[in-house]
Design goal:
Blueprint: H1 7-10, H2 19-27, H3 33-48, H4 53-57, H5 70-83, H6 89-101, H7 113-121
Helix pairs in contact: 2-7, 3-5, 5-6
Length: 123
């Protein structure tokens, strides 16, 4: 299929929205605690498969990264869900992404849906 003269070649405008409106939209998505808890619990078997979790929780002093207890982090996120710490889906996703998946090491990576919107907003 030839793309010459197609819509993508003739329309160069990029849709935009005001940052404040986009941020308000992200924060308007309600948190469904039961589903969020099920999501976190569904990740646990994959995390348990990580062979160096104990080493990273208590690394030697010369280790490049600071100590990181992934199982403690998962428990904290579940506690935060149960106690209502997260005001909305975006707050939950942001915390999950930064505390569970954004801690370096490079072995785990997922980006929750509302964080995808943020990635697009920050490009």
């Amino acid at each position: 299929m030839r793309l010459e003269g197609s819509w993508t070649n003739t329309h160069t405008a990029v849709p935009t929205v005001a940052a404040a409106l986009a941020y308000d939209c992200l924060n308007s998505v309600p948190l469904h605690k039961d589903e969020a808890l099920a999501l976190v619990e569904s990740l646990e078997p994959y995390v348990e498969w990580q062979s160096d979790a104990a080493y990273k929780a208590d690394p030697p002093p010369e280790y490049f990264w600071p100590p990181y207890d992934i199982f403690g982090t998962i428990e904290q996120i579940k506690t935060n869900l149960r106690t209502g710490i997260y005001k909305n889906e975006y707050a939950f996703h942001t915390d999950m992404y930064t505390s569970l998946f954004g801690r370096g090491h490079g072995k785990r990576r997922t980006r929750p849906s509302t964080c995808l919107a943020t990635a697009v907003l920050t490009l």
